[in-house]
Amino acid sequence: MSRAVRFESPDHASLLLEGYSPVDMHFHTCHSDGSPTVRSVVKHAWKTGCGVAITDHNTISGVREAVDMDSGVTIIPGIEISSADGPHILIYFYSVKDLEHFYWRHIHENKRKSPFLAIYLDSEAIIERSREYECVRSAAHPYGYLMFNKGVQRCIDRCYLPPRFIEEFDAAEVLCGGMSREMNMKATELAEDKSLGRTAGTDGHLLRDLGTVVTCSKAQDVDGFLQDVVKRRNIVVGKEKGMLLKGATGAALMTKYTPYALPSLRIHYEQNMPRMTHALRRWSHSQDRREKP
User: Which of 31, 89, 155, 275 fits as disulfide partner to 62, beta carbons 3.0 to 4.6 Å?
Assistant: First the structure.
């Protein structure tokens, strides 16, 4: 495995001494389905010595709050969009102004009654609309999550998306704290095979997650940092969450989605029933062919 991807706990002090700026590029706050307040996230990032991309689901209010604190912590403007057809898409912007323009023009009006789950736009439409802006598009946990089709490459492998769709992205999340080592290694190989940039983050929803998986660049500002990602000049460092922490995250998430139980079930039904029907038809067709003499 390339030393650009390091499966080890990050030593932030050592990384800083080497000239790297470590940033957790996938973190959620109480503005979506995370537990921590923005203030606590920024304070913890300052103590830890890392930056953060607040990538709340389908909303950007946490980014604005963090930037307005003017804390000295590196804040990369970002959002994680839950697409209608399943994949989660991380988009990072060079400016908060562009992020806000993109959100109010394309995302806000397409949100549903379960605000953190799938919006009305599918993944291809989201990518197409993002092309109006200077931004970096990263495939979040491309092989995740569990039984859900929340990864772009997973949907491609299941023939839900065109084979070349991954090439529409600038980067792939090669190290995600919520994924298994096996899936992260597959994501790393995917990025290598497709010459995609590398991003990494905890996919954190609890404060203790912050900074345990980081993307590192020697750039001195957000513009340079994102350019290093695109040009593959960065490294990523971190370890996946253990089962206990994953369980704690799951329990915290339940409290966020319970108020939206019915609309959430509707979204999952709309996403998965056509695929289940298609799979059953294919299975039935294969059985018929076997039974023919």
Answer: 31
Provide the 8-state DSSP code for 159: T
- 90: which strand partners? 80, 138
Question: Tell me, what DSSP letter sits at residue 121?
Answer: S
pLDDT in tens, 132-170: 999 999 999 999 987 788 999 999 999 999 999 999 999
User: In whole angstroms, what is the distance from residue 154 CA to residue 176 CA?
Assistant: 15
Other beta carbons less than 10 A from residue 78's beta carbon: 27
Q: Which residues contact 241 (CB under 8 A, 6 or more apart)?
A: 177, 178, 202, 209, 212, 249
Distances (CA, A) of 55 to 17, 268, 284: 27, 22, 42
204 and 28 Cβ atoms separated by less than 8 Å: yes
- CA dist., res. 202 & res. 256, Å (int): 19
- Residue 29 tokens, joined: 């706050």
Tell the CATH topology of 5-260: TIM Barrel (3.20.20)
Is a pLDDT exceeding 80 seen at residue 277?
no
Mean pLDDT of the chain: 94
CA 189 to the chain's CA centroid:
18
H/E run at residue 52: strand 51-54
Residues contacting residue 126 through CB under 8 Å, at least 6 positions apart: 81, 83, 89, 106
Q: Alpha helix (H) ranges present in 208-260?
A: 222-230, 243-257
What whole-number percentage of the chain has pLDDT above 90?
83
Helices (H), 231-260: 243-257
Rounded Cα distance, 119 and 253, in Å: 18
